[in-house]
Write a structure and sequence with these properties.
Helices cover 24% and strands 28% of the residues. It is α+β, with helices and mostly antiparallel strands and 260 residues long. Helix 1 links the parallel strand 1 and strand 2. The longest helix is centred in the first third of the chain and has 18 residues. Bound molecules: biotinyl-5-AMP.
């Protein structure tokens, strides 16, 4: 990642997954800045083996290939810059400013507007020495709020109008181009982390986190330098690297927030 990124946008009517496609391209030496956009995905991927659903033409489904040279501890900031750029684009194009839900969702009023999935291949060919091929994909609900059980939302639902997906993509890439230099030096990365903390709606909330062997319950209090969520529990502060965070509300204060 050096200087200005040149975006090369490849459009597809249908793909299994824009992330899967771009990871394969990365392995064949595709340069940083290649973007895959699909009208429809037959096997859209979520995190932890889950799936991402969207009827044809209803969403912005896009992946970008980055080749950052970063200390491993900072790699988690790649999906963060994409999430922030997507939030910028929603503000510019639709007048909607989503919050970030740890680790990388865009949410409005507790409902999921978009999900981000980062997949890295440290062994992929190409890129400068020490770089990692990092594919960051985003599914952003434009016309359709997601499957009913997910209790998501869409830009149409939030604005009452249809939002132009190519304009949204253009603004997202422009914002990402402006934000990518933030990954390049330590001070800017610190500021980026501070922005994440400031905009993260999970912090200050009671949460329940399902990790591999146990359930952790407490108050989300911070995000560490390596992107882990800090949860203050009765037994002390715990750090969570991956897992499913559910917002817990005191009894009688309404439905559980949909956080996935
Ligand atoms: C994510 O996973 O939120 C990451 C989603 C990334 C999707 C993009 S689309 C372009 C690129 N190519 C891919 O193949 N993937 C990326 P996760 O946090 O695991 O959330 C998945 C869960 O969200 C599912 O289990 C459903 O409950 C829910 N879900 C599925 N589709 C949804 C939608 N359209 N809107 C809201 N929630 C949805």
């Amino acid at each position: 990642m050096s200087g200005e990124v040149f975006w090369e946008v490849r459009h597809f009517a249908s793909l299994d997954s824009t992330n899967r496609y771009l990871l394969e391209e990365a392995r064949s030496g595709a340069p940083e800045g290649v973007v895959a956009v699909a009208e429809y995905q037959t096997a859209g991927r979520g995190r932890l083996g889950r799936s991402w659903e969207a009827p044809p033409g209803s969403s912005l489904l896009a992946s970008v290939l980055l080749r950052p040279v970063l200390p491993p501890v900072d790699l988690h900031l790649c999906p963060v810059v994409v999430a922030l750029a997507a939030a910028d684009a929603c503000g510019t194009v639709a007048g909607v400013v989503p919050g970030l839900k740890w680790p990388n969702d865009l949410v409005v009023g507790g409902r999921k507007l978009a999900g981000v999935l980062a997949e890295a291949d440290p062994g992929a060919a190409g890129g400068s020495p020490g770089s990692v091929a990092m594919v960051v994909g985003i599914g952003l609900n434009v016309e359709w709020p997601g499957p009913p059980e997910a209790e998501g939302t869409s830009l149409r639902e939030l604005t009452g109008r249809s939002v132009d997906r190519s304009e949204l993509l253009g603004e997202l890439l422009a914002a990402l181009g402006r934000r990518l230099p933030d990954l390049q030096d330590e001070q800017r990365r610190e500021r980026l982390l501070a922005e994440l903390v400031e905009r993260c709606v999970t912090l200050g909330q009671r949460v329940r986190v399902q990790v591999a062997t146990e359930t952790i319950e407490g108050t989300a209090t911070g995000i560490t330098d390596s992107g882990h969520l800090q949860v203050e529990t009765a037994g002390g502060v715990r750090e969570v690297a991956a897992g499913d965070v559910v917002l817990v509300r005191p009894p009688g204060t309404g439905p559980r927030e949909p956080l996935n």
